[in-house]
Amino acid sequence: MKTHAIIVAAGKGERAGGGIPKQRQMLCGKPVFLWSVEAFLAAAAIEQIVLVVPVGEADLYRETLGRDGVLVVEGGASRTASVLNGLNALEGAAEDKVLIHDAARPGLDQSTIAALIGALEEADAAAPALPVIDALKRQLGAQLETVARDELYRVQTPQAFRVGEVRKALEALTGPLVDDLAAIEQAGGSVKLVEGRETLSKITWPGDLARMEKELMQTVALPKIGTGFDVHAFAEGDHVTLCGVQIPHDQGLAGHSDADVAWHALTDAILGALALGDIGDHFPPSDPQWKGAASSVFLKHAVSLAQDRGFGIGNCDLTLICEAPKVKPHREAMRQATAGLLGIPIDAVSVKATTTEGLGFTGRREGIAAQAVAVLSPLPASS
Hints:
The protein is an alpha/beta fold and 383 residues long. It has 2 domains: 3-217, Spore Coat Polysaccharide Biosynthesis Protein SpsA, Chain A, CATH 3.90.550.10; 224-378, CATH 3.30.1330.50. It contains 12 helices and 19 strands. Strands 1, 4, 5, 6, 7, 10, 11 and 12 form an 8-stranded mixed sheet that branches. It has a 5-stranded mixed sheet with strand order 16-13-19-17-18. α8 packs parallel to α10 (295-308).
């Protein structure tokens, strides 16, 4: 049994203003519809995603997507027709599950997806919903009539169904629906409501985009930036280790570990971005188990801590400060080693070197200093 997702983005979306359909307007740096696409792509349970778009605009959406894993199909003259087009494009069986979602509801999260999939084990359909908490009134001319709000809900999307059941219910309709759930209701099916969220509110009117941006900015993780600085004095030896690369030299670097001053600074930069102290907090020099240890151990630990908190390394910039040895001949090897350990492209790693024009301890050739900047980027949600 598979689980699919259909994102309906085939409407004109004119009421929201902006000059283009609301699903293509920019929200926190990306088109509204792309928020839902990325949420479903991050859901391990979703095996196929179908994006239903306006007639004649499929290539425009494919170009914006710029990725595999999403099937783009054209919609129809009504929402029901568009949903049926999406259902007919699915590669699955009648008993498969499908989540049908409005592209104009960009605040989809992984817990809602999981709750809806689970709810289909107990009912024919499921949807997120919020209880009505405001007083409800019906206007009758110059008078108002109070409407009881007990057991009333604001129903949102995605709405979850069995593929065969929702297709059959939609094909049997003769009139318009407020949502796909109404088709199951008319067919007498059971419905389970799961907890809805304000971030799932629909963008409909001018001003909704700005309101939604405020909502989402509270949930979107922002990049983190950290800096690191380290110093090691020269000692007896025949090489120094910088960014995991052994560079021949008439001296070595003194340190409890391998004294890789560059990777020590980078480790501190990552830990600083996470507000998790410094390298000494995690690998105390007083602990004999770290004597002579490769600094790759420290850097991998910092990367793992970042990943545990939902961040990957976006890019880093390292500056070595020394009179000798010459760094430039080894710079590409240092970039490659750092990129490989961090798991990022080499063009996201910068390694530079400078001198202090003979000033200070580095100018007197007493040691090497290094400073690093690391940018941590939020990883796509996966649970």
